[in-house]
Amino acid sequence: MQRFVLVIGAGQAGLAAGYHLARAGASFLIVDGASRVGDSWRARYDSLTLFTPRQFSALPGLNLDGNRELYPGRDEFAGYLERYASHFEFPIRLNTRVVRLCKDDGVFNATLDDGSEIRASEVIVATGGFQQALTPAVAGQFGSGVLQLTTQTYRNPHQLPEGPVLIVGDGASGRDIAAEAAQSQSTILSTGKPRRLFPERAFGKSVWWWLNVSGVLRAPAESWIGNKLKQSDAFPDRSRSFSALAGLGIRIAPRLSGASGSEARLADGTSAAIRTVIWAVGYRDDNRWIDIPGAMAADGSVLQRGGISPAPGMFFVGRPWQRNRASALVMGAGPDASHVVASLLHERKRPRARSSG
């Protein structure tokens, strides 16, 4: 068959892959289950902003307009992705969800939710690493009178009924949501592992400028610097330190250890009556649709190194720590996609270079 690349996902990772495929003159199609490009961002909570300022939040070939030092919001960035796809006139099919991906006689076969199929010589999976919000087992210990939301189902404080709110998880999203909830409700933030926050600016410049120019963000995942960054899991402060949150009236509490009815039990032996719980404890992948020998680990996670799968012809873009810390940020999508597309084109010249597992 004619060489043809299927890109699954039309978020920043898939669009960055499209940019580099188009530059290489490759034939490709991007598919996405959403009705609009950027909907993965529109589905997040209303006040979400990107980690990085606009100067570090653009994809290759098209700037993100606005103050370079400030952070783009959710809807602004979703609109940027839509403009990006239109600007480069990428071939995109929306409302098109892949429910099974298999491989027969060296050709990938993607079965769609409408029963039709797309055949491709190579596949780039760009569905990202934040697909399904986690809900821990302790959630089942709360009674039916407690409203339970996740970072995917929470939108704004208007959703919250009157009564105390418990946010479980003190990552960036958990802290953002706690600050919002505290404007109208008694709020508790249940913490987890120790986290480090870094300042937004240093010596008159964005700290991201320093991290970028120093090469820290490009340090390989397996390097000493990469390991240190993974362990610290740091993110910008932006008035989200514990002291700043406590100043908003938020109770900073230890880990949630159990629950019964409307009572939340904390690791320090205290408890609190709760009306709403918002789970902000991370995400998991849902890769059950991938049915490719050698592509998946025993625990269901994808196998890849630098975006290159051990299954020939299969690639990934948008995985956290795919190559470095920047891989989980918009600023890493372009370089990672460039690396993957170059590897894809190189593999076309050496079709037996990798084992199928």
Automatic annotation (TrEMBL):
What single Pfam family name could you report for this chain, choosing any that match?
Answer: Pyr_redox_3
Give EC number(s), comma-separated.
Answer: 1.14.13.-
Q: Which Gene3D superfamilies match?
A: FAD/NAD(P)-binding domain
Classification via InterPro entries: Auxin_biosynth/cation_transpt, FAD/NAD-bd_sf
> What is this protein called in UniProt?
NAD(P)/FAD-dependent oxidoreductase
Q: Which residues form a coiled coil?
A: none
Which keywords does this Swiss-Prot/TrEMBL entry list? Answer: Oxidoreductase
Group of enzyme by EC: oxidoreductase
Identify the species of origin.
Neoaquamicrobium sediminum
Q: Which GO terms describe its molecular function?
A: oxidoreductase activity
